[in-house]
Amino acid sequence: MSAITDRDTTAIVIRQLTPDDHARWDAFVVACPEATFFHRAGWQTVLERAFGHPTYFLYAEREGVIVGVLPLGRVKSRLFGDALISLPFCVYGGVAATDPLVRRPLIEAACALARELGVDHLELRNRSRQCPEWPCKDALYVTFRRAIAADADANLKAIPRKQRAMVRKGIDAGLVGELDRDVERLFDAYSESVRNLGTPVFPKRYFGILKDVFGDDCEVLTVTRDGATVASVMSFYFRDEVLPYYGGGKASARDVKGNDFMYWDLLRRAGERGCRVFDYGRSKVGTGSFSFKKNWGFEPEPLYYEFYLVRATHLPDVNPLNPKYRLFIAAWQKLPLWLSRRLGPLIARSLG
Q1: pLDDT tens, position by position, 47-68
Q2: Where in the sequence is the domain holding 233, given as residue range(s)?
Q3: Which residue intervals define the domain BioF2-like acetyltransferase in the entry (predicted)?
Q4: Which of 15, 106, 109, 212 falls between 20 and 30 A from 96, CA-CA?
């Protein structure tokens, strides 16, 4: 625990989250405009249960009231180094605060923790620039967010004409969207999709833990045709936002526009549920995912991933666009699906 005094002589205290404080933390996150779904306390449980990664969820108090949070997780591996991240496996993170005076103490506490742990670097995944003096990756990732309406017809008309035609092809193909209680069909479609992209898959139990921890705010929508799985997506709900996060399609999805229909069906359902923001999530600039989301009429917003270097001398570059991973990706794409599902979790847990 550390304390500083602000110009109003009111003490700011930095503490670490304990299970007894989860309800207080989440109440703050829901009320804080800067906070995202990835600031929720449940991620501490997810990271520890699914991957065994140590977590350090810091929060700032003034007079016993939480006024800022900074969730952190440590990911250490021989392959990809040792990092303290806000937050591993999440696209957003960094400080969320209702009092600007607590931002600096929280970041300083994170830097001190990074030095104490002896990690290679500290990474804050921000939607806006927070530490302009730090090295930053501001041209690699973008996010796509757009307002949606309650009316399905209005949402359909808001999709550009060519993409709307893809959605209608899925409708004409007889595709049906169904909500799942478990993650079996999701894992089937998602694991096949990421194998085809050359990416190691997460373990099935990770998706089960997400549903268990986040309950009704974690939903699986599966698209079928004549009873057969075509595509599936796991989405998160936060305030009035929906965030499709883990999704993929089977080989049959391309011919019947399964992914196009799936995201339309999710958007339609979310609008009717009361959501007013569709967060299409993070993509790397110049990738197929980036182009797909732009085709829906979403405009990219830059993400600012800022780094405090401790033992490292340069920014890490652990992403599929790095040329040194090209041969690995090509080899992974050729793996039998059963083998990729067995080996993938051993690698994916270290990617962060």
Answers
A1: 999 999 999 999 999 999 999 9
A2: 142-302
A3: 176-293
A4: 212
